[in-house]
Design a protein that fits this description.
By secondary structure, this protein is of the alpha+beta class. The chain has a domain of 253 residues: Alpha/Beta hydrolase fold, catalytic domain (Rossmann fold), CATH 3.40.50.1820. It has ten helices and 36 strands.
Length: 597
């Protein structure tokens, strides 16, 4: 096979993700990109993937009704993230997509089904661009009713019973408040102590005990399992806590006997089970090291979930709590041609300029002297690089490059203090983390000083540009994907619905405008020495394409080496398979050209 054919095979590897059980059917669905975009699939009697229903655009969310008779799906248009809601009868022989909630100019965030399967909850900014109100829609009559008004960003996250919804309102980029809203009389009860900044996530009601279980870092560094009584929502009881690691996802078994959870140990998930009655916890063994998500109970004893690892792009697995056996249900995320080339990373740490321990995943096969390397920066900022498959990383390693994927200060998964270490005017400390990592690679991994590239998406793209401008001598090439070139213009032009959330991380326009101008890569383009490759989606509602255009225009006027590729049918996320292949092939060719010369 030629190098180009091998690269295409790396990029064409499919996956299964967002697994979800269908109530009462002992059957499940998942998303996959067999058609080039994310659509809904299931397994037939021969355990072969079959498409459930065709959709005109990518599927973002899927919610099967509690009675197994209806399913709703969310789709946007050409990546603009303005999700619209459609429905189909799950039990119909010929499935027809029916518009349920459609207003193309607005966002719709699905909250889930009422327990009786009559209503679906969602939030939308129909009243004003930055204001999200909560609605319910009757699945049979299609009648929509507003049940809660909020002059900021909010989403319904769970139902307690057929009349009460839990609504999450974002206070900052990480913190939130929870309220119980009655859909008929509009009464509101606040959960927990709102005077203490906290994350509240994944609330799940247990109607048998009248308790609601959730994850929170209330008065702690990390997310832990806790609960409150519906009758006393202000009193939160801590049940299960790891001081060092976050718990990430929870899911109740149908009879509410077991609560499955995931534990994030430095970007690698463990699966566990907690018994509220016995107050006992057990971690599962035998599951490959990777990222577990989309947990859903097929029966009272069998849990299904999506599993991604660095050498497994994504498949649906099950765990039997009675026999403690793990079983792989789909075999979509594999390759007979390039799977043998995939590389497991090492989880390492380096000490930054101030002594802070910064973790990173290190991929390498050759370990040769003076080899080239690439640093891969995650977005967010409050995201986390995890142990999951990345085709570009794997191909670069296959071509003899080392790749370091760090979780610099400001990353999620290491506690609240670490998460907030890059806020506002501490932004350049995170950039210096990248500079220290580049020096670490040359000092401990035999990487050539003049052959280090850097790549990142979204906030990671901003960090690429910041690294190129503030530490220009360290880099041989840079790739910016949908990144910001100036936090000031980004905040001025991003969607109103998210501006105040980003300001809580970056600092407000009112207070930090001069600081943004001072550190902006857009204002320091004369410092850039490395060639630059820039990608952006025309329909990006998070980081406007103007952030890339203004930077590219300036570099071109200076005759600096820059290449700009705009995807006309994408938004913030590059979703379509053809566009992913274009982007990744350009990226690999770019690094191959500038890191091997």
């Amino acid at each position: 096979m030629s190098d180009e054919e091998i690269l295409v095979d790396f990029l064409n590897v499919n996956s299964a993700f967002q697994s979800q059980a269908i109530s009462g059917e002992s059957q499940f669905t998942f998303l996959s990109k067999f058609t080039g975009k994310a659509e809904l699939w299931t397994l037939n009697e021969e355990n072969k993937p079959v498409q459930v229903i065709e959709t005109p655009d990518r599927v973002m969310d899927v919610y099967h009704g509690p009675k197994g008779d209806w399913t709703v799906i969310g789709m946007d248009y050409k990546g603009n993230e303005k999700q619209q809601i459609y429905a189909y009868r799950t039990d119909a022989e010929i499935k027809e997509l029916i518009p349920l909630v459609v207003s193309p100019d607005h966002f719709h965030h699905i909250g889930g089904w009422s327990p009786n399967g009559k209503f679906l909850s969602f939030s939308s900014n129909r009243r004003a661009a930055g204001f999200f109100d909560v609605f319910i829609v009757d699945i049979e009559t299609k009648e929509i009713k507003k049940v809660y008004s909020h002059d900021a960003n909010c989403i319904p996250v769970s139902w307690i019973d057929d009349e009460n919804i839990i609504v999450s309102s974002k206070v900052t980029n990480i913190d939130s408040t929870l309220s119980v809203v009655h859909i008929h009389n509009g009464s509101i009860n606040v959960i927990g102590n709102q005077d203490v900044s906290s994350r509240y996530e994944m609330p799940i009601a247990d109607t048998i005990s009248n308790n609601v279980y959730m994850l929170s870092d209330y008065k702690e560094e990390t997310l832990h399992l806790c609960r409150f009584s519906v009758d006393q929502p202000a009193q939160i009881e801590k049940l299960l806590h790891w001081e060092k690691w976050d718990m990430e996802e929870i899911s109740f078994s149908p009879e509410k006997e077991l609560l499955a959870f995931t534990l994030n140990e430095g970007g690698i998930n463990r699966l566990g089970f907690y018994s509220p009655q016995l107050k006992a916890c057990e971690l599962a063994d035998g599951i490959p090291k990777g990222v577990i998500s989309s947990m859903s109970w097929l029966t009272n004893e069998i849990l299904i979930f999506t599993l991604k690892t660095p050498i497994a792009p994504g498949d649906i697995w099950s765990y039997d709590v009675a026999s403690k056996k793990v079983n792989r249900l789909t075999f979509i995320g594999q390759s007979k041609t390039v799977g043998k080339f995939w590389c497991e990373p090492e989880l390492r740490i380096f000490h930054s300029f101030d002594g802070l321990e910064v973790p990173y995943f290190f991929y390498n096969k050759d370990a040769s002297v003076n080899q080239p390397a690439v640093i891969y920066v995650h977005g967010g900022p409050e995201s986390q690089t995890k142990a999951e498959y990345n085709p570009v990383v794997q191909y670069l390693v296959h071509k003899g490059m080392a790749v370091a994927a760090p979780n610099i200060r400001g990353s999620n998964g290491y506690g609240r203090s670490f998460l907030q270490m890059d806020d506002a005017d501490k932004r350049l400390d995170a950039v210096e983390d990248l500079a220290c990592l580049a020096k670490e690679l040359t000092a401990t991994h035999q990487v050539a000083e003049d052959k280090i590239g850097i790549i990142g998406r979204s906030y990671g793209g901003f960090m690429v540009l910041a690294a190129l401008t503030h530490y220009p001598n360290l880099w041989a090439a840079g790739v910016d994907i949908v990144g910001m070139s100036n936090l000031k213009t980004f905040l001025q032009n991003t969607g109103e619905w998210r501006r105040y959330l980003r300001e809580s991380e970056y600092g407000s326009l009112e207070q930090y405008s001069k600081y943004f101008d001072k550190i902006a890569p857009m204002n320091l383009t004369d410092k850039i020495q490395a060639p630059l490759l820039v990608f952006h989606g025309r329909n990006d509602t998070r980081v406007p394409v103007s952030e890339a255009q203004q930077l590219v225009d300036d570099l071109q006027s200076r005759k600096s080496p820059v290449k700009f590729i705009v995807f006309e049918d994408e938004g913030h996320h590059t979703e379509k398979t053809a566009n992913q292949i274009t982007m990744h092939m350009e990226t690999v060719a770019f690094f191959d050209r500038y890191l091997r010369k």
